[in-house]
Each structure stands twice: as structure tokens, then as C-alpha cells.
Amino acid sequence: MRPIKSDSLGIGLRTDHIADLCKPNHRKDIAFLELAPDNWMNIGGKKREQLETLADHYPLVAHGLSLSIGDTAPLNLDYINNIKTFLDDYAIDVYSEHLSFSRDDQGYLYDLLPIPRRPENIPYLADRIKTVQDILERPLILENITYYHRYSQEMPEQEFIAALIEASDCRLLLDINNLYINSKNHHYDPVAFMMDIPKHAIDYYHIAGHGVEKNDTLIDTHGHPVSAPVMALGQKIINSHGKKPVLLERDNNIPPLQTFCTELKVLSKHLSYGVSNESSDNITIRNRDHDTSDKISDGHICSAGH
Fold this sequence. Notes:
Elements: E1 2-5, E2 9-12, H1 18-21, E3 33-35, H2 45-57, E4 60-63, H3 77-89, E5 95-98, E6 101-104, E7 107-113, H4 122-136, E8 141-143, H5 157-168, E9 171-175, H6 176-185, H7 190-194, E10 202-207, E11 211-212, E12 218-219, H8 228-241, E13 246-248, H9 257-271, E14 295-296, E15 300-303
């Protein structure tokens, strides 16, 4: 049985690391893996065997790519039902997506675009979120995205997120790097931003590196180690909102697994993870063979195999 504690550190599953992660002796410095179900649904052969092995070695959480919760087209119910089947098959209770839209009447855009943050859009989004949650029989955990365009007459992002959580009972995946990037590009205080975000609504954190353009615009590349200012912001957020599991992301310039785990160790040191915290929260992982959640009294939760 492997726990995901509130001070656990995980990594995003990437093709470059699969062979190493499937080796018989699982890595003790990786507490959990986050995968994109879009890349693993309805597969067979070697890839399916690899997924089964990974699920035996590590607790899994899911981070979707194609829900497009904020578009104006009807929800893709076939896609959502396929997600549910996948989550059920691997007893994954933690399913996150992006607070964005990525689809228009021509199809998928292969980008995450910001939703106009206007009060009149909240009931519409809340209804869609509730539909997804009803189908999945799980909370929908939404991530704050980076954005480079703003619409007119918008609410402050933190107020919009808080209102949407209240209206829909969704949860929040707080991406610390995204918050830092937006605060620099749009000139606001990320610590003040967090004052409006309810502590109880955050299920886990993302953290990653970013790039800098010649005009000093920050770009969410996921192609660099986490910067010192992002780590410092992460520590402030943890101090104010409590320890939650942290997921280290890398999508470009992916290093060997051992190098990436060294970055994970640096992150652990800066965030003081691996130390118990009474105000911490846990995310729940189910035993694949049972329908009940395994939460035990000494401050962490366990997954048996899958």
C-alpha cells in the first residue's frame, strides 16, 4: 500500500520516463503519478501492459485535456462517459481539468483559452460542471490557467474562481507557476489573489518552470526547472492555505528520470515537504478492488495497488 500524504510529491507521467517507472523496484521518491486519460483510454497491447504495471507501482491521479468546460457547444457526453469508464477501471477518484475552453464550432483548438470572467457566465459554467460531476460521480477539480488575453468588463480572476466554486461545488487544482506568470504579465499581487481563494477548495498543487521572452513576458513552457521566485510563492501559499500534494510538471526539455527526481528533491527541500502538518489535507485514493475510500487516522491515505 502506498500513501498520498498531504506533503507528498508526484510527477506528471511522460513517455520518456515510462520504461524506468515500470522497472520492478518502484521509486520511493515519487509518491504518485498524474496522467492524461486522453492518452491512455481505449488502448491495448504494450501500452496497456505498461499502464497496468504503473498502476501497481504508484497511486494515479488523472488530469484531462479535452473537456473544454467553458465553450458554448454541448458537452461531449461520449468523451465524459469514456473518462468515467477509465477512472472506474483504475479506481482513480482524483480527476482534474482546466478552467478554460479549447473547442469551437470547427472542433478542438489544441490550446487552452481563457473564459470571459463575467458574473453572467457563472450559472452557465456551474450547470456544466454539475453535469460532469453527476456523470463522473466525482468532484471536478479545475485548474487556473495562464492567459495572455483579457476580455472587457471582467471580474478579478480570484473572485470569479471563488464564486464558481461556491455555485458548483467544484474543487481547485492551484497551479502555482500559472499564478506567478499571470501576476507578472498582468501586474497584480499573487499573495493578495490567494486571500480570496478558499483553503478548503484546493485539492492539490501544480508547479513547473517557465520561459521569459525578450519583452519580459513570461511563458508557461513547462520546459525549465522551477524558478526560485515560484518556489518562494509556493512556500507562501502553503503557509497560508496548508500543505496539499504537489505535482511537478515537465512537458519540454524533459530530463532523464534521475535528473527530474533530483529536481523533486530540491522542491521538497524548498517547500519543507516530508514534514507532517496538522492543517494538511489529503486527496483520496481508492483500492481498485473495492468501492470504498481508504482513509486512515494517522494523517494520510492509502492506495492498495491501483
